[in-house]
Design goal:
- With about 325 residues, the chain is of the alpha/beta class.
- It has helices at about 5-25, 40-55, 75-80, 95-100, 135-145, 160-170, 185-195, 205-215, 260-275, 275-285, 295-315, and strands spanning about 30-35, 60-65, 90-95, 115-130, 150-155, 180-185, 200-205, 220-225, 245-255, 290-295.
- The chain has two domains: about 5-120 and about 250-315, Bordetella uptake gene, domain 1 (D-Maltodextrin-Binding Protein, domain 2); about 120-240, Periplasmic binding protein-like II (D-Maltodextrin-Binding Protein, domain 2, 3-Layer(aba) Sandwich), CATH 3.40.190.
- It contains eleven helices and ten strands.
- Strands 1, 2, 3, 4, 5, 6, 7, 8, 9 and 10 form a ten-stranded mixed β-sheet that branches.
Length: about 325
């Protein structure tokens, strides 16, 4: 067979595989596991996928199933037991990486089939408007002087906010194991603590504090993205000389043991979903940043994140070496 004919046959085979995968997805009665209670970020992501896929008629039907508990690890444990299940996806993200270590989960993310990273949310550190801390360098100096006197407010212990506090302290030259972190169960509680001056600084997704930042009630001293956010006049930590980049990403994975053809079908389904008008409308409505990574690139990213998050949690003294 000539090189030209071989190339053509390869291209035809690839096209045929795509057509078959697309056709299979269109007939799929999909289940999407949200390993959290209704209303949270993973639940919102699962329901946004459901809405986009059904609106674009990419699947026959889509059902969201909530399995809350232990930072998603309860849902993960049930999910990995469904080996070879080619009709179910599970939403997860950054928080689950840490939760697996903190909860000493018997299952982990090496047991699933990575499909795609979907979205990410940039984190921000804020201080009250009347705080003497004007920028990230001021906060870093305070941490270096006496880390115990600098208090950070944020979400649950071991989550993205806590990890970011440890990363900031470490990047500032302080002892991350001595970070003074105050967890709150809700954004309203942490906001009250920040506004009332009961903590030095607060950490959350930028969208959580955007309103207070724009009205001048809070001062944003830095964002955790690699580059500045479009239309947001807040410097990154890196441009202030602090080596800190972190995004609270969300993703979707498939069960272990699916066939290569079934993985291709999921790859095609998610790629068509994230390119759809319905998904773009969901991103805009929720204020999420598109962070799509296809399966192979996402698998590499996930492996690196597992190592990085594990290192930070060890430096915080939350998990043993």
């Amino acid at each position: 067979m000539s090189v030209v004919k071989f190339a053509r046959s390869g291209a035809i085979a690839a096209t045929l595989a795509t057509v078959l995968a697309t056709s299979a997805a269109a007939q799929m009665e999909l289940k999407i596991i949200a390993p959290a209670a209704p209303g949270g970020g993973w639940d919102q992501t699962a329901r946004s996928l459901q809405q986009a896929m059904t609106a674009e008629k990419l699947v026959k039907s889509a059902q969201v199933i909530n399995i809350p508990g232990a930072g998603g690890t309860v849902g993960l444990a049930q999910f990995v037991n469904n080996k070879g299940d080619a009709n179910t996806l599970m939403v997860n993200g950054f928080v689950m990486v840490g939760a697996i270590l903190l909860n000493k989960s018997p299952v982990n993310l090496t047991q699933v089939t990575p499909i795609a990273r979907l979205t990410e949310e940039t984190q921000v550190i804020v201080v009250p408007a009347n705080s003497p801390i004007k920028d990230a360098k001021d906060l870093a100096a305070a941490v270096k002087k006496d880390v115990a006197r600098v208090t950070f407010a944020g979400g649950s212990a071991g989550g993205a906010d806590h990890i970011m506090a440890g990363m900031f302290v470490g990047a500032s030259g302080g002892d991350a194991s001595k970070v003074n972190y105050v967890p709150f169960s809700g954004g309203g509680e942490s906001l009250a603590a920040i506004m009332g001056g009961r903590v030095t600084a607060g950490i959350s997704g930028y969208g959580e504090y955007e309103g207070q930042i724009k009205t001048g009630r809070l001062r944003a001293i830095g964002v955790s993205s690699p580059q500045r956010l479009p239309g947001v006049n807040v410097p990154t930590f890196k441009e202030q000389g602090i080596d800190l980049v972190l995004t609270n990403w969300r993703s979707v994975v498939a069960a272990p043991g699916i066939t290569p053809e079934q993985r291709i079908a999921f790859d095609q389904l998610i790629e068509r979903t994230v390119k759809s008008k319905a998904w773009q409308e969901q991103l805009k409505q929720k204020g999420w940043d598109n962070a799509f990574l296809p399966s192979k690139a996402f698998q590499t990213f996930l492996e690196e994140e597992i190592v990085r998050v594990g290192g930070v949690l060890k430096s915080l003294g939350l998990v043993k070496s």
